Amino acid sequence: MAIKQLSLSAKMTIDGFMSGIHKSTVKGPGLEFSQYRSYQPGDDLRSLDWKMFARSDRYYIRESEVETNISIRLLVDASASMGHQDGAFRKIDYARYLAASLAYLGNLQGDAIGLYVFKDAGIFSMVAKQDFQHLARLFYQLEQITPDGTFTKPIHYKELYAGAQKRELLIFVTDLYELKQEIFDLLDTLNTLKHEVLVFHLMSGNEMSLDFKGYTTFEDLETGKTIQIDQESARAAYQENLKGHLDKIKNKMLDRRISYRLIQTDQPLDQALRDFLNQRNKLKT
């Protein structure tokens, strides 16, 4: 039942999001006919349509739609910090629905979709494929994710090098919580693959505002360490430090030429989906 709900939610999210958005295609030499246009000096003469010339005594270029399908790998952080909760909603829940919606949208556009889950003991991987049976299996695996332990160690990153050699879009959904630079080490590894990388950074509303309904004791979900905090007196300094931290993250992403988007888990998915479409359009050009 949970799998059906995830699938239905992804479909409803995408159908609602795509309502009113017109399909955009890239024109050029290809297999599927698109349109004719007048010949311009410098055009490839091999694209001239001589039958149209015979009928009209004018030169026309026959254009087709370029095949732009790509492979998309969804990378999901399943370390314990993704179990952080704001009200009844956890980061991993948001990540699950975001990944499902992106998978559904990619499949709808004819892209091959793969899934890589970063767990404490290693990486669970599903190679990228393009069919609805594969999509159903991907939804099933998303439902099985249970955040636990620390982030995956580099010894397991060999899984990332498997797969096709053509260009890919790697979408990493994470809260960017790290102990010793391990997530940015992963991003450096992803950059060596020469693919486009898009990072969705998840933070909850209570993290952003330091508003935990009167709690004074806080526990690190990955190390188990605890700390006592007076939220009222610490809030101003906390928010200032958080702003500096987020600015530093943005600069690190910029240095690595990685597309980055901070998302609060109490916000709708629309902006994340728009960012996905923008990044996919970059791969087409």
UniProtKB/TrEMBL annotation:
Gene3D superfamilies: von Willebrand factor, type A domain. Residues 35-244 form the DUF58 domain. It comes from the Bacteria. InterPro entries: DUF58 (IPR002881), vWFA_dom_sf (IPR036465). PANTHER family: BLL2464 PROTEIN, DUF58 DOMAIN-CONTAINING PROTEIN. This is DUF58 domain-containing protein. It comes from Pedobacter gandavensis.
